[in-house]
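Budget justification aside, the reviewers requested a transparent look at the raw inputs and outputs of the sequence design task funded under Objective 1. We therefore reproduce one unedited record. The lines immediately below are the structure tokens for a 243-residue chain.
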């Protein structure tokens, strides 16, 4: 496994949101975490990225512990987070926002090469380079955020609710972009409330409920599992696993 969580407990203000989370992400995969509101999905991302220190348990990336590291240290290890809320600086240009993703690099030639790579993957970065990021639509801003996350050439990209606030057509294009990023060699861990769309592009699925992992398996098996209806009906998922 490229990323592994074992028995992770974490929360806010003295209370645990995550209660013994076990989760693995295979290299080259798109793993999609789904579940009802309050299940702990975004808290998992916060614990992995260093925004939240686990109270108990272990998190390993590429065989080495990252538990308790600060966000900058986690980023330096090769994990990049695109947060739930839009995170661009609206008064800065598109190019300036993307180049901020390479702030840890000191090699100007390498920065230029990375910029050319993300421009090829996200043409809007070049087409709208000099325009203020705040002038872009929500879907366009997401593309720029994705581009910025790749400037340090991360091995794993964490996407927290990327379809949030996007209209259906734009969300569909965004999911295609995530698939393209994966096909270009990025391992993706995705948290998504749009269950069908998220699992449809994923290779692996994880269902969370009440701070625990309830189902794991191939994305297709989870998508076809009748118990997934509990996410919408408010019932409890059985403590079983999809193969």
């Amino acid at each position: 496994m490229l990323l592994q969580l074992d028995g992770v407990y974490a929360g806010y203000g003295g209370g645990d949101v995550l209660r013994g989370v076990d989760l693995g992400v295979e290299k080259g995969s798109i793993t999609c975490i789904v579940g009802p509101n309050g299940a702990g999905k975004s808290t998992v991302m916060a614990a992995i990225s260093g925004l939240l220190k686990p109270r108990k348990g272990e998190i390993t990336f590429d065989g080495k512990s990252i538990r308790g590291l600060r966000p900058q240290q986690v980023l330096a290890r090769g994990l990049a987070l695109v947060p739930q809320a839009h995170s661009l600086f609206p008064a800065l240009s598109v190019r300036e926002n993307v180049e901020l993703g390479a702030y840890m690099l000191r090699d100007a030639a390498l920065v230029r090469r990375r910029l050319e790579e993300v421009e090829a993957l996200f043409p809007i970065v070049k087409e709208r380079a000099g325009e203020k990021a705040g002038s872009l639509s929500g879907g366009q801003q997401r593309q720029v955020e994705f581009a910025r996350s790749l400037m340090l050439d991360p091995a794993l990209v964490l996407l927290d609710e990327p379809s949030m606030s996007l209209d259906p057509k734009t969300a569909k294009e965004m999911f295609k972009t995530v698939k393209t990023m994966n096909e270009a060699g990025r391992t993706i861990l995705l948290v998504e409330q749009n269950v069908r769309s998220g699992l449809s592009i994923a290779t692996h699925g994880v269902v969370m409920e009440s701070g625990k992992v309830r189902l794991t398996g191939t994305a297709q098996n989870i998508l076809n599992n009748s118990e997934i209806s509990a996410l919408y009906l408010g019932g409890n998922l059985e403590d079983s696993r999809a193969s």
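The first helix runs from residue 41 to 49. DSSP finds ten helices and ten strands in the chain. Computational costs for records of this kind are itemized in the attached budget.
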